[in-house]
Amino acid sequence: MTWLITGGAGYIGAHVARVMTEAGERVVALDDLSAGDAARLPDEVPLVQGSSLDGELLKRVLAEHAVTGVLHLAARKQVAESVAQPARYYRENVGGLAALLDAVAEAGIGRFVFSSSAAVYGNPDVDLITEDTPCAPVNPYGETKLAGEWLVRAAGRAHGIATVCLRYFNVAGAAAPELADTGVFNIVPMVFDRLARGEAPRVFGDDYPTPDGTCVRDYVHVADLAEAHLAAARRLSGPEAGGDLTLNIGRGEGVSVRELLTAIGEVTGDRRPPVVEARRPGDAPRAVGSAERAAAELGWRARRGVPEMVSSAWQGRLRHHGA
Ligand SMILES: NC(=O)c1ccc[n+]([C@@H]2O[C@H](COP(=O)([O-])OP(=O)(O)OC[C@H]3O[C@@H](n4cnc5c(N)ncnc54)[C@H](O)[C@@H]3O)[C@@H](O)[C@H]2O)c1
């Protein structure tokens, strides 16, 4: 077995590459390095620099490395950017996936795992989001993930590819400081960035109908998420392989923004009170995913909690930026 990991030099992709190689799987990474860092990859993982939109390159990589399964993580992922540049997001996220699925079908590869997102749900008014909760994304990024899932399942049916769509909730933490998220698009690195500039963290609305008035989310450690990919890859290689699976990847537990800021204060020692600003349009009061289907289908559950997410992310921050 050789697994192609697209987006393998990215924050999550590099964690997946590490977990897969540590488990004895052969891996090749494809990344255009638009947001990735080749140094994140384990030494034994070859990196092909190029785009998932390049059909000829994809054919060559699949053949030269005798790829037997694909983990597709490469995508643009910034919600605000997707609102400003929707055609680019459809072209790169959906177009890149279409080119890849064509190459996969032509090569006769029968295993495909797709990085989806809780953004496919939009803002459902439910306590716990299950995979059967209707999808109604509220921005082009989420739309490209939902359209991507449709395309993955349709290609799976058309070409006999067994597929798994993993809907990640809020990803945080790092398995090692050098693998940390260096962007500032997710809440933990965003707060670190504010603190480093001597500014108080911001809370967007504290009058939501939640226990402490701030928004509640489901945070999952990136090391747990990487293990979910290994479990999905194993499932696709085992006796129960076949058909399509769509799974939430979260902890099934809600953590409020205030609770997260308290955890960050404990780790950084910077406990300055947050400034409360107006609600942001489109923010749901609560978005927590049921983790039961992933447990039942993959035998996978997240093991690491918020303190480990925050402290490992902080170690990464110190490594990349200093205190
Ligand atoms: N980080 C999160 O909280 C989160 C949550 C839900 C879903 N996701 C999804 O997980 C995946 C990985 O996210 P991440 O946080 O690691 O982001 P990231 O930006 O760190 O990684 C994405 C990688 O893909 C590469 N890439 C982008 N477009 C490419 C293309 N067309 N061809 C080849 N390489 C390309 C980038 O260079 C980067 O290395 C994405 O599909 C994202 O939508 C992330």
TrEMBL record:
Top EC group: isomerase
Annotated ranges, domain NAD-dependent epimerase/dehydratase: 3-250
Keyword Transmembrane helix assigned: no
Keywords: Carbohydrate metabolism, Isomerase, NAD
The protein's Enzyme Commission number: 5.1.3.2
Pfam family name, one: Epimerase
Protein name, as recorded: UDP-glucose 4-epimerase
Species assigned in the record: Streptomyces kebangsaanensis
Gene from which this protein is expressed: galE
